[in-house]
Amino acid sequence: MSRLASFALFFIFIVSLSVIGSARSIAGTHAIAKSKYTTSHSLGDSYTFDPRDGWQTFNTTNLHYKYPRNSASKSSKPNKPETVVEDVAAAAAALKTLKGIGDTVKVTWYTGQDLLNPSCWSNVNWHPTDESFVCATTLTGWTNKPKCFDFLELCTHPSKCIFVRVVDTCAGCQRGSHHVDLTRAAFGQLAPFDEGVLNVHMRPATQPTSWYEDLWGPKYGDMTN
């Protein structure tokens, strides 16, 4: 083999290694960026709830749960004392500036067949999985409830907050209740699954700068409600 051919092969080998290294680096960077939206974030343990920051607490009552108590897809513990978390934060690094007032809401989780046919689209081939970060809200009676495709920040504590997107409605949630049904992965970032029902603070968030369809669904679509 001539020196020229050997040099060409060596050059191709070096370029291939560079391409593979770059691809791995890009994949690693992508994974790190995505993890900001799939793991809970802390907004500072020292933050204390203050109405001057634009947050407001609403009284909540016990709800009629979407599923029977013996359902395998959701666990609820109505006899367990409930804690209303009063500490929330004013900003989040993963998204742009948050807007609006806070709200205390009930949070549960859903899975299985209930993930199919999200009602915020009239015709879409996508549906959430257990690993998505989306939610369903009370179907009727919640005045000024979050709209389809809104992003929300939910916190059980200043050190336990997540972001989710509204893509569905919960027909089984009590009329007029402030109730948010989360996917399994989203709920699991806030509490153990056997908690079943949580009280959290919520406020609107702006859309993220990067988009992951597996987490939130198609970026654009026709809203049906």
TrEMBL record:
Signal sequence interval, chain numbering: 1-23
Keyword Transferase: no
Annotated keywords: Signal
Keyword Glycoprotein listed: no
Protein name: RlpA-like protein double-psi beta-barrel domain-containing protein
Organism: Mycena pura
